[in-house]
Amino acid sequence: MQTLSNSYQFIGGCQNNREGGKRTKIFLDTASSKEIKEILQWGVISGVTTNQKIFSVEKGCNFKDRVLEILSLVDGPVSIELTNTSGSDEDLVDEASKYSRWDPKKIVIKVPMFGDGRGLRIVNRLKKKGIKTNMTCLITPNQLFLAVLAGATYVSIFFNRVRDAGLDAVKTVRDSTRIISDCGSSAELIVGSIRKPDDVYEIATASPHVITIPYKILMQMPFHQKTEDTIKEFDQAWQEFKKCEVQK
Ligand code: E4P
């Protein structure tokens, strides 16, 4: 079976203008192993992101078993979110440490940007323990700036939720990329909350490191009616050619 490591080389002809010519990657925003197996065959994804809402549609599975299954499929980062949001700092660090032990190289702990700064404390503590983090639910470049300085491995801007908040979402992504670069940080910007195929195109022009896309949206991206019509036109032309081809 194709894994993400051997699909990575195919990712993104999308050379952007960041220093070092880094490429914009696609992650799959899902907890469905069926969806991951199917999309892996395209050779376009290099990681997986999940959250509680994404798991809520995966009825009848065990959380740890499903994460281990995803890890067995994916040779790249797998983000899972802290759930004990009303717990103490110790509770959250313990939860993160437990998940990270499942695969310290690939597991990335999503830590929400709590409004009281608690999430920043957790990210900072996890960084010191060598645990990878993805600071999530970010809406503003200011939140992102803090997440980067606190030492998050990934920082996640929620594109359509930025729009829902009445802010300029493309500018937010562009400014966020710039802030990370100006901080000299190795943090990678993940843009999530993708609700239609055109969101992907708009976001890609702002050069984030990663766009995490739900299966339903990714499945719509190869299709355009004009492409279908063109394929049909060429098929018909081939039939015409074959009718009068000289046989040898
Ligand atoms: C996070 O990675 C997701 O994209 C998250 O589910 C947000 O998506 P939504 O704003 O469409 O709910």
What does this structure look like?
By secondary structure, the protein is of the alpha/beta class. The protein has a single domain, classed as Aldolase class I (TIM Barrel, Alpha-Beta Barrel), CATH 3.20.20. 46% of the residues lie in helices and 16% in strands. The chain has 12 helices and 8 strands. It has helices at residues 4-8, 33-40, 52-56, 63-73, 89-101, 118-128, 141-150, 159-164, 169-182, 197-204, 215-218, 225-243, and strands at 25-29, 45-49, 78-81, 107-112, 133-138, 154-158, 188-192, 210-213. The protein has an 8-stranded parallel β-barrel with strand order 1-2-3-4-5-6-7-8, surrounded by 7 helices. Strand 1, helix 2 and strand 2 (45-49) form a beta-alpha-beta unit. Helix 5 (89-101) crosses helix 6 (118-128) and helix 7 packs parallel to helix 9 (169-182). The radius of gyration is 20 Å and the shape is globular. The model is unreliable at 1-20 (pLDDT under 50). The protein binds erythose-4-phosphate. Erythose-4-phosphate (E4P) is lined by residues 29, 49, 51, 53, 158, 160-161, 192-193, 195, 212.
Summarize the structure.
The protein has a single domain, classed as TIM Barrel (Alpha-Beta Barrel). Helix content is 46%, strand content 16%. It has helices at residues 4-8, 33-40, 52-56, 63-73, 89-101, 118-128, 141-150, 159-164, 169-182, 197-204, 215-218, 225-243, and strands spanning 25-29, 45-49, 78-81, 107-112, 133-138, 154-158, 188-192, 210-213.
Keywords:
alpha/beta, TIM Barrel, 12 helices, 248 residues
